[in-house]
Structures
1.
Amino acid sequence: MTARILKIFIVCCWLALLVSLVQRDFFIHALESDEQEILIQAKHQQYYGVHLHNNRIGYVMEDIRPYAHGEGEEGVRIRQQASLRLKVLNSVQPITMKLNATAGNGLQLRTFEFFFSSPFYKTTAKGQVNGNTVHFTLDTGGATIKDSITLQGPPILPLNQRGYLLSALSTKGDKLKIPFFDPFSLAARSSVVTYNGQEKKLLNERIYQLHHFTESYSGMKVNFWLDDQGKVIQQRSPAGFIFQAEPKFKAMDIRDSGDELLSTVAVQYTGKPFQENAQNATYQVQFPQEAEVDLNGGRQHFANGRLVLQKEMFPPQPTDDAQTSGERCSDNSASLTASRYVQADDPAIRAKAQEIIGQEVDPVRQVPLLVEWVYKNIEKRPVIGLPDALTTLQSGKGDCNEHAALFAALARSLSIPTTIAAGVTRQKNAFYYHAWNEVCLNGQWISLDTTVNQLPADLYHIRFTRGDLEGQLAIGALIGKLQIEILPAQE
């Protein structure tokens, strides 16, 4: 693989994460009937310009209209649409997101359909709500996934009016915990909204007196400002994205795709790179305290801001210490289970895994066969979307997320404990967000990267979290706030 191909592939691995920070989430909150009136009366369209570093790169439109459904059953029909142009290594990537939903008079979600389109990826999610449970079907073109999520309360859509926050949070420092449902990743999470008081803000050459709120979830923070009617005037997301209420003609006037996206979120480091044959590496790492990271375990040891990585031996030598073995591979249940995007129990996945390993029965020898097959047979393409193993197997293309999901599914189908690691890896003069795998062999966690055919992975792979897609989004809290220093070997 040439250096350019390697760079393109590695830096494209976290496009799905960045897009998830752009798209609008579903909030779930039991609003009082008088608070609903503000939203139900909004019969007009609202447009928001999407900006990245002072460049308008897209827009979001929201349309809310009342409708009658059956005898005596009234509600509202909601339509949202977003269009983005993201520049990735000087190539413009168009992205389209559409949402059609119906809700009751209390704005409890009844049905929804979510469509997402990007180069090399299209998906549609349809769902309906029964009580507090959202039942949905996800069609990726390569796989059909049916699942459900039960929440703490009836799901409520976040519209351009959030008047309920003004009545619920009136004093600076007041907090409100809100569970919400994300239609992009189809996952439920909880966020905490904090009221920061009123402040003057200059927007479009006009001074507004606005209410400032901060929303925190999975260690990430989003700031937004409401006017006295509860309308969102501006919202700032991680990675520099800004949503701003604008007239239609202005919001849709997209003339640029902004700065090169992934370079803007790369982590510049200090210190001198170590030799490639080094057996250990030491880093000084700084990140937000609220970030949900998993730096200890396997080959990593973190204490007092200092992270030490010890390169694994392969093949790993068996250990006679059963207790140590159990501690090192204590997450076997999750690392053996099929999940929504890691379909280890699918017949096609099982059949492919058996085809790859042939007659080999030793997991230590099966793993290199799986690594080599994924590396050689999956075309290196930046795919903006949800990485699922079955779709990747059928399409034969993907970035590091697709590689990691497919390898995890193949290995788990053979009863090899496997996790997906998410973190950063070095490419030339910066660290980029990346995903790879860890497998448990002979009681030890061994890292590997099928995107560059490394077993074990080199010591520039710094893991911050483990887990399938739902857990990986927590790394978004590190965007723009991570500092890395490579320390000399003697330290």
Note: Residues 1-12, 24-36, 38-43, 322-327 have pLDDT under 50 and may be disordered.
2.
Amino acid sequence: YVHDQQSKYPIPVRIQLPPESQVGLDAILALPMRAANGQLVPLSELVQVQRGIIDKPLYTKDLQGVSYVMGDMAGKLDSPLYGLFAIRSTLKNATKAGSDQTGEYWIRQPGNHYQEYAIKWDGEWQITYETFRDMGAAYGVGLILIYLLVVAQFRSYLTPLVIMAPIPLTLIGVMPGHALLGAQFTATSMIGMIALAGIIVRNSILLVDFIELQVSQGMAFKAAVLQSAVVRAQPIVLTGVAAMIGAFFILDDPIFNGLAIALIFGILVSTVLTLVVIPVLYYALYRRRMESRTDANILL
């Protein structure tokens, strides 16, 4: 290994003969070697040749015998899933005629290797699966906590559903945004979607809170719904633009570009749709209740 000041990691160096000198054992044994007294002697006088078979290493995992087949993805598509499915389509041609189907295991180890030949997709695929599994669970827990907080704020089980309705709309911006820029959906993209849930809920709360505040002050329900999108549009758009500008600075980062794309396109699309979806949905769900309440007040 070569250690220098410019490289972060040691550089492996392998010294070997040129191809024209690797023509057989006789050529290798005829190589001149310099002895301690400075004289050149052939390698055959210094070594004793023994022919045999080198024992192959035996690998085990979880007390089961295993043979590793490794490969790295490189190029435009570096996700392990693309290479995995490309190899998987050719496995049927590698199976011996008359033999049983080769078992496949994606997220767990084979149960009994004495009953079948099995393939365990591991490595980067296993890391990818565990990462998105854990983030998906965190996303679900976050949505539950947001729902409980909004229930405590508005004292209603239906209003939080209205407020959280635009969260799926982030997909309309996130997925096309990745496709437009030719980027892959990575773990940081998932982090961006989790962050978008909180941003979108904040915008929805601003609209719903304004509607309920105006209605409590005597404004007609329909007028309050229309005014909410007009009055709250400026602060919602300004905060969204500020978040998008901040995400632009990490857009060219090789690791966090997925986070930037998710924030930029997710905020852009969901902000516009939130200003439309929330007032329309809130009006559709509460119109009859508010109109009956207004009629009751008039009778009184």
Note: The first strand starts at residue 32 and ends at 34.
